[in-house]
Amino acid sequence: MTGWTRIRDLPAPASRRFRDWWDRTHDDSLTEGVPRHSDPAAQAIGVPDKGGTDEIARRVSRSDTRADITALFVERAQAIGCNVHRVGGGSSITDCDEVLQRLLSRITCDTAVVQLGTAADQDMMEQVVRQAGGRIVDAADEDALFAADAGITDVVLAIAETGSIVIRVGDTVGRKAWLVPPVHIAMVRASQVVPDLIDAMERCRFGSDSSATVIITGPSKTADIEGVLVTGVHGPGAVHILLLDDPDSD
Known about the structure:
This protein is α/β, with parallel strands linked by helices. The protein has eight helices and 14 strands.
C-alpha cells in the first residue's frame, strides 16, 4: 500500500509490488550518503570490511574439523568485544568452577541472577557463585534483578562466522538474565558451535517451550547519537563466554 486516500479512512492499494519497484530503481544512487567501510562513522559502528567478510566465509567453508570451527568462533567473539575463557577437560559446570570463581572475583560480582536450561545445571552454577562469595538473585524480584552485578545463562548454539551466541527464551531461561545486568556470562560448550547462520537456523527450531530465539553478537552497542559508539546502553556492557571443550566436540 502506498498511502492514505484523501478521505484518510481506507488505505489505497499499491500500484505495483515493492519488489518490482526495487528491481527497477536499485542502483548506487540509493546508497549515496550511507557510510562506507573506510569512513570513520562506519568504523565506529563496526561495519565489517567486505574483503574481511569474504575471508571469513572462505574460512568457514573449509573448516572441516570441530577444532577449526571452535577456533574461528573464539577469534570472531573476541573481535566483537567478548571475553572468551576456554575451559578444557569436560562439559560439566564443575569443570569450570575455578575459572568462573576467578572471573566473578575479578569483576567484583556480589550478586548474580542465574538461569540455566536444566535444574541440575542451575543448582551447580548457584553453588559455584556462592562459593565465590556471591549472592543469588531471584529473577522475579525486579528491584534485586536491576541491582544485580551479573547474569549467568547457558546457550542453545553459538555461531563461528559471527562470534554470536544464541539463547532460546522459554520456561527456564527468560529475557531478563542476559539483558538487564551490566555483565552477561554465557556458558558455551564447543559441541554447540556451528559454522554459520544457515547451520544455526537449521538446528534451532521453535518449540512449544520457546517464545523467542535471540542472537547476541557482542556487548550492547549503539551509535545513534552523532555516530559515536557507546557500549552498554541497551543491554550488558560486557559479555564473558565460558567455552567448555566438551568430549562431544571432537
